[in-house]
Amino acid sequence: xxxxxxxxxxxxxxxxxxxxxxxxxxxxxxxxxxxxxxxxxxxxxxxxxxxxxxxxxxxxxxxxxxxxxxxxxxxxxxxxxxxxxxxxxxxxxxxxxxxxxxxxxxxxxxxxxxxxxxxxxxxxxxxxxxxxxxxxxxxxxxxxxxxxxxxxxxxxxx
Length: 158
What we know:
single chain
């Protein structure tokens, strides 16, 4: 469930939300529509704790994890497979730290954590996700710039 109570948020002194209330019971599905600039993205950022409200509170179940997909699909020279692997930020951060740390104890901790998150399966997991979204093995190795916006959005979903 999502419960928003007395939410207020201003941008540049202009109120975007003022004493807003919202309650969505568990199991319900809701769509959010509105004109550009109405505050849809800002509301999601408030819910995800990327922004702090001026007043009010947003209550979510503690065990919830919220995933967001960017409105702008990825592009560039990376492949879909590389893009999906890069989105696993914990794995990426651990791998970078592993290459830099001179401390053998920290190196052991990093290896232990990589085993816990099954980092050795990351490439096959990413490939399987992409395959489920319609990407052939060959497509997974093409640069993102060679795909249409719709296919790049699929990579964002992956």
